[in-house]
Amino acid sequence: MKELKKIDTVSFAMVLTMMQAIFFVILAGVSALTYDMTSALAYLMMIPIMFIANLFSAILYNFVAKRIGGIKIELG
User: What is the separation of C-alpha 21 from the centre of its chain, rounded to a whole number of angstroms?
Assistant: First the structure.
């Protein structure tokens, strides 16, 4: 049993955003291959939006973890 007290907010959001960015870039590439540039731009614009959302979720996680004194997770 490991206890998570606090996470580094920006690095957590960056890691989540990088994983999602790979998916959005693939979707944008497929859209560009089908000459649907509006969808391709929309997929690329989702990357900074998701970064802000991930940053908000990390801040919220830190707030909740601080209030309840840590979140216990089971690894393995």
Answer: 9
Instruction: List, for residues 34-47, the tens digit of each pLDDT value.
Output: 998 999 999 999 99
* pTM given for the model: 0.68
What CA–CA distance (Å, rounded) separates 67 from 31?
44
Structural domain of 47: 2-73
> How far is Cα 68 from Cα 63, in angstroms, rounded to an integer?
9
In the chain, how many domains are there? 1
Q: How remote is the C-alpha of 51 from its chain's centroid?
A: 6
Ranges of H-type helices in 1-76 = 9-33, 37-68
